[in-house]
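Predicting holo structure, D-glutamic acid bound.
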Amino acid sequence: MKIGIFDSGLGGLVITKALIQSLPEYDYLYLGDTAHLPYGEKTSGHILKYTLDSLRWLISQDCKLIIIACNTATSVALRYIQQKFIPEYAPDVKVLGVIIPTVEVALEHNHRSIGVIATEATIRSHIYRTELQKINPAVVVEEVSAPQLVPLIESNNFQYMDNIVEDYLSHFDNIDSLILGCTHYPLIKDYCRRVLPHVSIISQDELMGAKLSDYLRRHPEIDANLSQNRQRSFNVTRLMPQSSAIARRLIPQIDLRTVKLEDI
Ligand code: DGL
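Done. Tokens:
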């Protein structure tokens, strides 16, 4: 029984790498729905459909714990998945997202003003603002969508990244922390730290390992179901010419397989 990790593309490999580093003994199965990337520009209906197709495939491959590493899919689909889909389709499977763990870490700093940069769909959902203010109503949240970033990162094109990042970050007024609310953004965290040296940059690759360890410690009944043979499998729904280069930049020995979700 593996840990499944789902993302709309290859960005989730950054989170996978962090999870493997922190919990290396477990078996991991990664699925990036590259055929439908970018999710961030799609309607909620499409994002939900693609996410459910991906989850069905992960479940068919024996994943008992699934982490939706994609912020966009988490913001649109996680509530429905946890409340309706899983209880009916696979009640013995647990599905977790990345937004609540990120919000918890962001609030640990006790900062008054928090920025969020994410895809259009995530920003449109206002999920970060809602979840941050649910815990601390006094916190001020500034949200900026950055539609250019995912396509550039996914195509391994960092040529003008300094200027593009600077341009997006210039929309923030006076923030103390910045949440990088997209699985792809850990790859540009150094650019963000250069542009905003006095702001705490909250990057999901730096927090998800500790969050998953903590979750498994608190849920020994789930931990007991997970196999620990150090197996890894990395799958995408479409292999683009540049996919291997960006994937190897993240996980050097990676072997990317293409799968068809319609097969299940
Ligand atoms: N992986 C998605 C996220 O974390 C962004 C990529 C996309 O737009 O598909 O929000």
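Strands lie at 2-7, 28-32, 63-68, 94-96, 113-118, 140-145, 177-180, 200-203, 232-236, 256-258.
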